[in-house]
Amino acid sequence: MEIIYYLVPMAMIIVAGIVAGLFWAVKSGQFDDMEGPAHQILMDEEIFPEDSENKEFNKENNNE
Amino acid sequence: MCCKGCEAVAQAIVDGGMENYYRYRTEKGITAQELVPDVLRQMEVYDRPEVQKTFVRHAQGNIREASLILEGIVCAACVWLNEQHLKSLPGVLDVQVNYSTHRARVSWNDDETHLSEILRAISAIGYLAHPYDPSVHQQLLEKQRRDYLKRLGLAGALGMQVMMFAVAMYIGDWWGMEDAHRIFFQWISLGLTLPVFVYSGRPFYQAAWRDLRHGRAGMDVPISLGIMIAFGGSLISMLRGSGHVYFDSVVMFIFFLLTARFLELAARKRASEHTEALIQSQATSAVREVDAIETEIVAALELEPDDIVQIRPGETIPSDGVIIEGVSSVDESLLTGESRPCSKRVGDILVGGSVNIENFLRMRVTSAGQESVLSTILQLVERAQAEKPAIARLADRVAGYFVLGILILATAVGIWWWLNDPQQWLSVTIAVLVVTCPCALSLATPAAITAATGSMIKKGLLTSRGYALERLARADTIVFDKTGTLTQGQPGIDRVLCYGKLKEQNILQIAALLESRSEHPLARAFTDIELNESWALIDFRNIPGGGLTGTVNGVPYYLGNSAWLKEISGHDVPLNQEADIPDGTHILLADDKQVLALFVLHDSVRAGAMELVHDLQVMGMKVMLYSGDDKSAVEPVAQKLGMDTWRSGMLPADKLKQVRMLQQQGETVAMIGDGINDAPVLAGADVSIAIGDGARYAAAAADMVLLSDKLSVLRDGVVTVRKMMRIIRQNLGWALAYNLAALPLAAVGIIHPWMAALGMSTSSLLVVANAMRLTK
Questions:
Q1: How far B762 CA sits from the closest chain A CA (Å)?
Q2: Contacts of B27 (CB under 8 A, 6+ apart)
Q3: pLDDT winner (highest mean) among A20-24, A51-55, B499-503
Q4: Closest to A32 (Cβ–Cβ): which among B142, B150, B188?
Q5: Is the Cβ of B145 closer than 8 Å to some Cβ of chain A?
Q6: What SS3 class is residue B586?
Q7: How far is Cα B452 from Cα B441, in angstroms, rounded to an integer?
């Protein structure tokens, strides 16, 4: 069981990393808008009109 | 400044012409107490009139009113403290703090005190106040949210580790474990708990400390005490090598409480979102014409009446005004809840905050900044949210006594267990302190009120007084005015019957000239008639509930209803002589000698009026119609709508008398009418709703204002307030029942500290979630 004296401190270092990551995420504003990004996906679609979709489609076809 | 001493030093430096010390120094001087001194120094700025223009409202004389945001409010007790402290200042007339939005409305006499003094007084008791400015408020909310997220994240991440070791140790108690391992685990747990204890728990200690310093007991006192006893007790047991450790309970309690606070913050933000949207819709800049060619961009607040402003499509209208060029449609949904754009042409009124959709417009500013309609609406909303209904005040008082009771009880229970079973005393005391925290009790009412107000504004029913919601919920009689309320308020002239020698055209012109000065809805029937420019109107008088008098070309004329005309001129009224006079509103024109003409006006019933009356009756209300119009106009409308009772030919004073009579019979009366003509009766009713258009509601004495065109919103409003009262009762009932039920269980030692933490947080969350049902 002596292994815990090594493993537990290791786990603590990982936890410290997690907390540091969380603080960084909060500070960089990733949690500021919890709803916006979900809607943004839907809005992206409208920005590209149909022909750009076709272009993508054509490009793929041409490559083939 | 932190104290009088520093203030004297700073004053001496400035007086001696040594301001450069402040301008060029790179470090702040050492102060006895680093209480954000630069913020305090800025407060003087808020006394300058050009700065005050945006957020201060002038009442009569030197009495001023302002909205402030308070930083550091955590519970209803903080609200109380700020109110009490500010009220004790000389010159401060009234203070009301809203817990839900952390805003305060302060009115003061500028002769005796200044805004900066008030702000300083607030900071002296450990809070920070800023004059209300939407962008600052947003930033504050954002900062608070980030803070909470970090504290919550830390408590969650480390808490999980502590729990893991706690489980290991519980199992160890059962199966046996080596002492070396136990001690190792305890030290690790201590190391993990310490950051949570110090950082995540800080908001609770700060709030509790503030309470204690002012000799009060808020809900954070038992929370902080519980956390500290659990932590300290565990530390001592650990060092002595005997007894149980409760690090798991400490982190769990902090984690759950923070979750409840965080959700409450989010819920509050959501509920007041619509008001925020209103505030943000205020255009910040405007394009003002300097001369025929040149334009300049100015702040919306700098606009003065009679400025000419250009509004491009898609822009927000910066202030109230009248269109002088262009045709466009305008989205007023934020103000009225009406989603369809309304078309506007030259001469139409634009309301600040609405959005120009189609075409370029030029507008002449009629009122700007503080005076504009949108500002007025915002101020009405703030006033309503700041005023506490009776039920909320009661809950505050109860919660205060409750905390005191808990503290005394916890001490007694702790001592009893100490004497009888020293093994258990720590665990039981913690459980008692935690499980009985009256958080749910304190949250029950404000959460429901915020949610209800928000949901009603969204539909277009504005609450401007705090007591309105409670009274509307209790109302059992609802009295309507007719013209402009249940009917269109856009009357047309059906027939003109002439009795004298004057030609019909002249008669119409005389009537139109008199009506052109009147605000009565019926006056609109005459607006299409072209006025004779050469005629002059003098001695004009408006007799509410009667009619109009004025002298045209030296001849005095009377225009009004038959009863009033008979009384004032003594003429016999030809109404009963002819049988073929059609139904409708009858208005007579007379001079000193005889009756000249009879106008028959018609006004059609508004869409939804019939459904509204029916729905209100189904909900158990008596629906009545009081009108100043003649019987011939009122009867058909009342019968068509299926009114319970109706009265015609009433003066405003008669209406008031009738309402008083109903009140004496024990009825709670809601009065619905247009803001101006019915002002006295609106003020006399228990709760009044004005049906406003344009800028009128600013002058209304009403408790609520219907901004929407849809009458059905009134029914929705009644439904919402009744639901609100039900939810408040449920919340208070639940909170009291929970606390009373949990207390004995904790006192006899059945409830373990971690169960207490879970129960208390669930109770708070339940109350907030219940209130949020109102926003749907």
A1: 23
A2: none
A3: A20-24
A4: B142
A5: yes
A6: strand
A7: 18
The answer, for A20 touching chain B at a CB cutoff of 8 Å, is: no
Do the Cβ atoms of B545 and B563 come closer than 8 Å? no
Contacts of B154 in chain A (CB under 8 A): 19, 22-23
Closest by CA position to B437, among listed B210, B73, B756 = B756
The minimum CA-CA distance between B149 and chain A, rounded to whole Å, is 7
What angle, 0 to 180 degrees and rounded to 10, lies between the N-to-C axes of helices B273-280 and B373-386?
150
**Residue A49 has which token pair?**
């009109």
| Closest to B529 in 3D by CA, of B540, B516, B548 | B516
What amino acid occupies position B94? D
Most A CBs within 10 Å, among B138, B139, B149, B181, to test the A interface: B149
pTM, rounded to two decimals: 0.61
CB B244 within 8 A of CB B237: yes
For the segment B24-36, the average pLDDT, to the nearest whole number, is: 43
Do B250 and B230 meet the contact criterion of CB atoms below 8 Å apart?
yes
> How far apart are alpha carbons B356 and B340 in whole angstroms?
13
DSSP secondary structure code for residue B573 in this structure: P
Residue B603, classed as helix, strand or coil, is coil
CB atoms A12 and B157 under 8 Å: no
Dist. CA A34–CA B678, nearest whole Å = 47
Closest Cβ opposite residue A15 in set B142, B146, B158: B158
**pLDDT tens-place string over residues B449-507:** 877 887 887 777 877 777 788 889 888 899 888 776 787 766 778 778 777 777 888 88
**Residue B592 DSSP SS3:** coil
How far is Cα B163 from Cα B156, in angstroms, rounded to an integer? 10
Q: Helix (H, G, I), strand (E, B), or coil: what is residue B547?
A: strand
Question: Which residue, B248, B399, B262, B249, is CA-closest to B739?
Answer: B399
Please work out, in degrees rounded to the nearest 5, the angle formed at the alpha carbon of residue B576 by the alpha carbons of B574 and B577.
65
Please give the Cα distance from B324 to B78 (Å, whole number).
Answer: 51
Radius of gyration of chain A (CA): 23
Closest CA to B365 of B328, B311, B405: B311
Residue written as tokens 């001849």?
A: B555
Q: At what angle do helices B179-195 and B247-271 cross, to 10 degrees?
A: 20
What does residue B321 show for φ and ψ, rounded to 5 degrees?
A: -170, 180
B169 in reach of chain A (CB within 8 A) = no
Annotated active-site residue B481? The verdict is: yes
* pLDDT tens-digit readout, B244-271: 788 888 888 888 778 877 876 766 666 5
CA distance B434 to B758: 9
Please judge whether B184 and A19 are an interchain contact, meaning their C-beta atoms are less than 8 angstroms apart.
Answer: no
